[in-house]
Amino acid sequence: MTAHTSRAARDAMRAARALLAALAFAVAQAAAAAEPDLGRAERLVSEGRYREAYDLLAPFEPTRGSDPQFGYLFGRAALGTGDAARAKVLFERSLAARPGSIPTRLALGRAYYALGQYAEAKIEFETVLSFDNLPPDLESQVQIYADAAAQYLDRGRRLTWFGYAETGVGRYRVNSTRGTQALGGDDRQDTFYNARAGGGLDYFLSDEWALDASLDYRFRHYDNPDVRNDSDWRWRAAATRVLDAASLVFGTRGRVSYRGDGIHRTDYGLFATWRYRLDEDNQLALGAEVERRHYPNGPLRDRSRTRSTASAGWTRGFADGKATFSLRGWGGYNYATSRPDGDSAVYGATASLDYTFSPRLGGFVFAWYEHDNFNTDRIHFHPDALDESVILRRKDNLYEIGGGLVWEFARNWTLRPEILWIRDQSNAVAFNYSSTEVWLNVRYGF
User: Fold this and answer.
1) 211, 216, 385, 408: which has the fewest C-beta neighbours closer than 10 Å?
2) Which of 85, 63, 71 is nearest to 38 (CA)?
3) CATH number assigned to the domain comprising residue 199
4) List of the chain residues with pLDDT < 70
């Protein structure tokens, strides 16, 4: 082989190696081009540049649609551009692969809210968030949840919060019962003015854990100087563990109430609640609580007691997400009491219906019942007995029925007419009681 031939062979080998390197680089570039830049998409979403993020990710949906992070970011981009229906599908697909993702569940709740499916939004939010002292109507609850989700998702806040203040005027009437008749009482009617303020915090420790706390103050002033003014503080602190399509909430809560004549009542206890999302329209809840009610002084001290209860509930969304029906039952025992009637077994149930007529008008009705069966025979006053006293074992049936409307007349401002009927029915005449309350409140949420 001549030197010329050898040099030509070496040049050919170098050319072949260069060609192979170029082909490898081209293949690598083509492979990279087939992968979406999720880091850039995440930056665009966090900056609120949703259209750019959407256009970046849309070409890759056929090949990357099953990737949970891709689906979450593409869903956020779709929701940001106003395509809530597309976002809902993307979030559901992402959750199928990663069901315990807090950001994705919050985002899906926002998609439901944007579509006007308030029932589904509430169920989705409550697999992550656990606020207390919320207003009774569906739309207001979901709006508070959606605002908290926006703080976390859009503004990157691990600490989210909400607050409210309301005031109004009402009329209180004590209805005639066997108890008031036996004691020579007449129907009493009084005008009252009320105020309420409070709020809640939620801190996301991780994608699985969150902490929350709330404080609520209520005050009622009566025109009648012979009627006590009511004052009530309520508080709660809890932790939430997200478990795929379920959540476990456990914590402590209580209240301090003014009962007149310098007497205060304190309630405090421990609770746990497990919620499970059966599907987008159905939620189950199981709960347990141990609570102590304490009257530190005064004539009501013998009403101090400890209560242990277990509960089960079901919430059903219907009417295309505009309404929910909820049913809850409980049972337990009152013990460690000094009441002359002794300890008592207790059971009860409550049902509620919420309906959203329009984004600015909603309504709700509820019914509540509880039965107390005491375990000690004792002498009670009874107007039907010849000597006006009988020995009996006390049994109480307690009822509450109420409802109201909610009209949002300006952003974050609502007008709320409500009515409440209370009936305490007992075979011990002195414990019979009934009242009717109506009031009109203005509420501001922030």
Assistant:
1) 385
2) 71
3) 2.40.160
4) 1-34, 179-186, 386
